[in-house]
Design brief:
The structure is a homodimer.
Chain A: E1 2-5, E2 15-20, E3 32-47, H1 55-66, E4 69-79, H2 85-103, E5 110-117, H3 124-134, H4 142-151, E6 160-168, E7 171-180, E8 193-198, H5 204-217, E9 233-238, H6 252-274, E10 282-290, H7 293-304, H8 307-314, H9 320-328, E11 340-345, E12 348-354, E13 357-358, H10 363-370, E14 374-380, E15 386-393, H11 397-404
Parallel strand pairs in A: 4-5, 8-9, 10-14
Antiparallel strand pairs in A: 1-6, 2-3, 3-4, 3-9, 6-7, 7-8, 10-15, 11-12, 11-14, 12-13
Helix pairs in contact in A: 1-2, 2-3, 5-6, 7-9
Chain lengths: ~400, ~400
């Protein structure tokens, strides 16, 4: 009931974006972005469950929970503003105040987000200067959205954007967004920043509920390395400019909106997984036939997070024993002698375990299937009819290289 | 109250060992070992918590729980006999029967253990032939114990043996053992096989209790890669030949025995961590000042298991933000603004976080400290007085290389 369109965070009516080089930590690349809405938006957000929360997470969480409305987002890459104490909180306020002044809006309608190295303080003068550069550059174009998606990257190798359109109450409603990965990614929440915009007219309560429900099956099913970041943030701004009758209950209009939101967040979640640090392949794990949804989630996350399985995917090795092993330590009760396991990709499908016992399979065919850029493992637990899908990536030499000297 | 002595699994009175080339999977190296006791021993064991349990785990668990006695252990490396169904169970019985015949003892006093690739069936003819080769080679010498420790290695780079002596009831009591790591290592249980022998005279019940309590602070505090194996097994055999009065209650004698056992298992656990797949350094994480022991265990395990932290240790990078982040997602409540973090090694000590905020520290000194072969991170939570220590290793290119093509 939706179609994919070009663009990202500026696809929906009323949103513009800009990017600039602020010289925060990176050289010769953009490292700050701004999203801006013509009018006040309803704002929803979900944040990291890490006890150690970065300053911007605390700032945004307060605005979303107390006010539920916002008009701009200022994002920097390079430094995460985490483990920075009171100074870090002051920098959030100063960033919001600088944006408020440049844009002529209240400071408490400016959300902020940071990603990068933990523990360093932001160079506040350069952040403030960046904000002043960004405001006059704001444009309501696909290109401006694309520039913003590039500026928020850290070890990401490509910008990540998606947009879809659906029809609600006879009006075209757009949901679009951009996000960045790509290390310190793990469920609850992944380490990621994701910024979704929509022109849907929807109540603040339902906007928040739609997001809260949606992340369970999207971002929270992504694991790159098992590390739950201090900064993970998903923000969702709704301008209401599509002109549909306000969605205030969980009827058909709400369903249409959540379908479009699901599509955007699933696509972004997959992009994060496929662009995990050092990844050469997206690794998808589907668990079917689980006794409960909760079991299916635990099982699929356990496999997608297994270092040994991830290394085997990198080696294009159908090491099904490691998959079965990872199912086994998921903390879920099941009968190991019932499990079937299949690998699937663009190159075909191959069953490797039946009723818990490894089959004698065609290794050449298996290697071909596991050599694709997207590989899926499907585990049938035969314990019930619940299912879940998790996304990750392979574990590579490059992951180690990236993370052995990230700070230097 | 104990002294370290030379040797391993044959150090205690009454135990002999042998190794041979059975050609199970490896070429030009030993791949089978046998431990044998002159008389029937009391036997204790702890096993993997993985739902998927290898056949030898099921075999041993039954003997330990029903009989609590054993006289021999047959171990092979190369193939794990896991995910092998009924055929795998039959092979355990056949192995025990072959050993029983060769040694002239009952089959249900023969424990078996396997380590290696999951999913492949054992070549039963070669196993049986190996058992027949091993029996006449048994020797009660340090060298024979050393040969056995070498034969059980998989991706281990060095054999792992420890032995200590203490005095109980006026008699010299020896506790010794051997173990192998080194991938698929994670708490509850680690993937490891560990075989401890002692000549202490101790009741079956206290032997099992001593082991069960001990592994909580030793093997269960080791994590190499977060993967809990299908095969992890710790066996403890007591010959009683030291001649001390039987330990039947938790008095001073029991305490002396558990101290010696703790020393052996701690040393072996550290050896497993330091020889984790691809490791260049042992990474020790001490959490102090936690609100409870349970919290301290969770916090230390979380840090030692963090891929990002492990990669930073490999890069000799004092990336303290990652440590604080890993504390934060341990699932424990604490005040991030109280935490102190210090790195320590043979090259010195450096405090990098105080009250949750990163200090401006000497990066050259930090790099020197983190470049040692054993590095310790000490986190003071300032929430109480509980503490715990976990052991792991750095995450390296070599880990990925080993695991990307382990089966081939």
């Amino acid at each position: 009931m939706f179609i994919k369109i070009k663009g990202g965070a500026t696809a929906a009516k009323g949103f513009s974006a800009a990017a600039c080089e602020a010289g925060i930590k990176y050289k010769d690349r953009t490292d700050m972005a701004m999203l801006y809405a013509e009018g006040m938006c309803r704002a929803a957000g979900t944040f990291t469950t890490n006890v150690v929360k970065a300053a911007p997470v605390l700032w945004d969480r307060q605005i979303v929970s107390e006010k539920g409305a916002a008009q701009a987002v200022v994002i920097n890459s390079g430094i995460a503003n985490a483990c920075t104490g009171e100074e870090g909180m002051r920098y959030c306020r100063q960033t919001a105040e600088a944006a408020a002044e440049a844009l002529g809006i209240p400071a408490d309608s400016v959300l902020v987000a940071s990603t990068g190295v933990i523990g360093m303080q932001l160079p506040m003068d350069r952040i403030a200067e960046g904000v002043r550069k960004l405001a006059p550059k704001l444009e309501n174009t696909i290109e401006a959205g694309h520039s913003a998606a590039k500026a928020i990257m850290t070890t990401d190798t490509r910008p990540k954007e998606v947009a879809v359109q659906t029809t609600i109450d006879g009006k075209i409603v757009t949901v679009g967004g951009m996000c960045k990965g790509s290390g310190m990614i793990h469920p609850n929440m992944c380490t990621m920043l994701s910024f979704i915009t929509t022109d849907a007219n929807i109540s603040r309560e339902l906007l928040q509920e739609a997001l809260r429900e949606d992340i369970k099956d999207t971002y929270n099913m992504v694991s790159v390395d098992g590390d739950t970041s201090t900064n993970a943030t998903v923000l969702l701004l709704a301008s209401g400019l599509a002109g549909n009758k306000e969605i205030t209950e969980k009827g058909e209009d709400y369903l249409l909106f959540t379908e479009a939101l699901r599509e955007v967040n699933t696509a972004l979640a997959r992009k994060i997984a496929g662009d995990g640090e050092g990844a050469t392949a997206l690794f998808e794990v589907k668990v079917v036939g689980a006794a409960s949804k909760e079991d299916a989630v635990k099982l699929s996350k356990s496999v997608v997070g297994s270092s040994l399985t991830k290394a085997a995917i990198y080696g294009h090795d159908a090491n099904c024993g490691r998959v079965l092993c990872a199912l086994g330590y998921a903390g879920v009760d099941f009968d190991p002698e019932k499990v079937d396991l299949t690998f699937e990709s663009a190159a075909g499908t191959i069953k490797v375990i039946e009723d818990g016992v490894m089959l004698s399979f065609d290794e050449v065919k298996a290697k071909a299937i596991l050599s694709q850029s997207e590989v899926t493992a499907i585990a049938d637990m035969k314990m019930g009819d619940a299912c879940a899908t998790a996304w990750g990536c392979d574990l590579t030499h490059e992951y180690v290289s990236i993370n052995a000297d990230y700070r230097s």
